[in-house]
Each structure stands twice: as C-alpha cells, then as structure tokens.
Amino acid sequence: LMANALTWAGQKAYDLSADIITNPANQTIETVGSPLIPMVQISNHGYQIPSSVTVRFQITPYGSATPVYSHDTVHTGASIPAGVSIPATAFPSLVIQFPAFTPMLQGVFYEDTAIVLNLQPVADQKPLNNIATSGFKTGYANDIQAIGFEFPQANSYQSAGVLLTPVDSLRNVGGNDWAFVPVVTLIKDQAGT
C-alpha cells in the first residue's frame, strides 16, 4: 500500500516527456546529400491526456546559436499517448516523424534538440523531462582518411634490396562500413623518386 501511495503522490496529471531522439541516432555519421527523417519518442507520464501539445525538433551546427532546421508539429486527441494508470507500470509512448532534413556540408557536427512544449489545457507539470538531445556528424558515404605511417617511421633508412612491408593507419570517416580497403603506399627516396 505504501509503494502505491508514493507512486501516486509523485505522479502528475499532465506530464509529457521527450524520451529519446531515434533518428538520427546519437553519435552517428550521416551522409552528405542524403535526406534523413528526424524522429523523437515522447511518452505520457501523466494520468490525463492533454488536448494538444507542440513538439519541436531543431538541428543546430555545434557551437552555433542558430538552428539550420526547426520544425514544430502540433498533436491533438488520439495522436497523443494515453495517460497512465495508478500506479504506473509503463508509460504509453509515440514516435513522431518530422519533415526531412538534408545535410549539405561535410565534416559538420550537429546537435539535435527535441522539445515538448505548449501542453494544453494545463502546462506540463514536470518540465524537466521535456527536452531530449543527441548529436551527429556529416560525412561522405565512402570516405577513408589516412592517419599516418606506423612503419617505416619518417626519416628512417632501410638497406637497399631488403623487402619492406609498409604499415599505414587509416580511419573510416564515411557513413558506410568498410573491410579490405585497397590502399596504395608510395615510398620515395631522398631525391623524391
């Protein structure tokens, strides 16, 4: 009985939350020129169904105060997750899709922000769970970056006629997974030939 009373006492009538940004996934590389569909999961932690709610999705280059993408969507009635029963054992949720965003610049870090706001007929009674954030970076689908040589070391010498097996370090900065990437290593002598 005590556990039920504590659950009920902490639960608010009107409490929607922005739980997680499901697309783009956090810390992913998104392909330049390819549209992505922003999505966020919201949940109803309250025991009432609001008459309407606005959900905003913004994409902002890291370090900038100005979003390059901002879209509000208003949900009413049946498009809002149902309220929970007392005591709450699970929170009804819904994934909201927004219009496509197409990143056009390579190597940009973006921060995504989803905000639940303008709850009606009563303001959200627990606003601390109204924001979800994540981030992603843009890159080309197929992009391998040379990091450096592990062997031979810079300014090192090798005897003439001795077989040399170069070892290179590479990093995948593209959106696709790679295995067995062909690499050409060019080794020159002191004369540059």
Structure summary:
The protein is mainly beta. The protein is 5% helix and 39% strand.
Can you give a write-up of this model?
- The chain has about 190 residues and is mainly beta.
- The protein has one helix and ten strands, in the order αββββββββββ.
- It has one helix spanning about 1-10, and strands spanning about 15-25, 30, 40-45, 50-60, 70-75, 95, 110-120, 130-140, 145-150, 165-170.
- The strands form three sheets. The protein has a five-stranded mixed β-sheet, with no helix packed on it. The chain has a three-stranded antiparallel β-sheet with strand order 1-3-6, with no helix packed on it.
- The N and C termini lie far apart (about 85 Å).
- The model is unreliable at about 1-10 (pLDDT under 50).
List keywords for this structure.
single chain; 193 residues; mainly beta; 1 helix; disordered N terminus; three-stranded antiparallel β-sheet; 5% helix
Helix content range: under 10%
According to DSSP, the number of beta strands is 10
Radius of gyration: 26 Å
Order of helical and strand elements: HEEEEEEEEEE
User: Which structural category do the helix and sheet elements fall into?
Assistant: mainly beta
Task: Classify the beta-strand content into a percent band.
Answer: 35-45%
Report the total helices.
1
Task: Write out the strand line-up for the largest beta sheet, numbering strands in chain order.
Answer: 2-8-7-4-5
Main pleated sheet: 5 strands, mixed
Mean pLDDT across every amino acid position = 83
User: Per the principal axes of the C-alpha atoms, what is the gross shape?
Assistant: elongated
Instruction: Kindly report how far apart the N and C termini lie.
Output: 85 Å
Low-confidence blocks of residues: 1-8
